[in-house]
Amino acid sequence: MHLSGLSFWDASGDRLRDWLGVDKATFYDDSRIAIAPMGFCYPGRLPNGGDRPPRPECAPLWRARLLAAMPQVKLTLLVGSYAQAWALGRGQMTERVRRFRDYLPQVMPLPHPSWRTGVWERRNPWFAAEVLPELRRRVAELL
User: Fold this and answer.
1) CATH of the domain at 97
2) Is residue 31 domain-resident?
3) Does residue 3 belong to any structural domain of this protein?
4) Phi and psi of 109, rounded to 5°?
5) What is the 3-state secondary structure (H, E, C) of the chain?
């Protein structure tokens, strides 16, 4: 992302686009898809790898105003536990993704598509069997 200036311009983006069933051109077409991070600042790396959590002061400053400026949004993907906690409150990411139908039609919780998610996907085969087909169907319908 730092080289391209685009979110998800890496292997995690490849995984996310595969989940959605869209190509890069569609994914980065801002007339069709909006990508809104939890913070507009990179929080840095953890000493043991991975990114630090979003800085707590960022989202309260801008997120509600940004979302209010986009009333045409038909589906919000809550990608990762931080986005889910912000929008849905405390809870377990896996359980939210498993109960994705409870949040439809406006919201769909997803795991973060990082390299670590491959292990999670193998432990949770229902994700590929149930969640991804519905996600791809909804995305195709909305696009």
Assistant:
1) 3.40.470.10
2) yes
3) no
4) -80, 140
5) CCCCCCCCCCHHHHHHHHHHCCCHHHHCCCCCCCCCCCCCCCCCECCCCCECCCCCCHHHHHHHHHHHCCCCCCCEEEECHHHHHHHHCCCCHHHHHHCHHHCCCCEEEECCCCCCHHHHHHHCCHHHHHHHHHHHHHHHHHC
- Number of structural domains the chain divides into: 1
State both tokens at 83: 């986005």
Q: Is the distance from CB of 130 to CB of 121 less than 8 angstroms? A: no
Cα angle 141, 73, 38; round to 5: 120
How far apart (Å, rounded) are the C-alpha atoms in residues 38 and 18? 22
How far, in Å, CA of 39 to CA of 56, rounded?
A: 8
pLDDT tens readout for residues 37-84: 887 777 888 888 777 888 888 888 888 898 899 999 999 999 999 899
pLDDT at 113: 94
Provide the residue type at 2 as one letter.
Answer: H
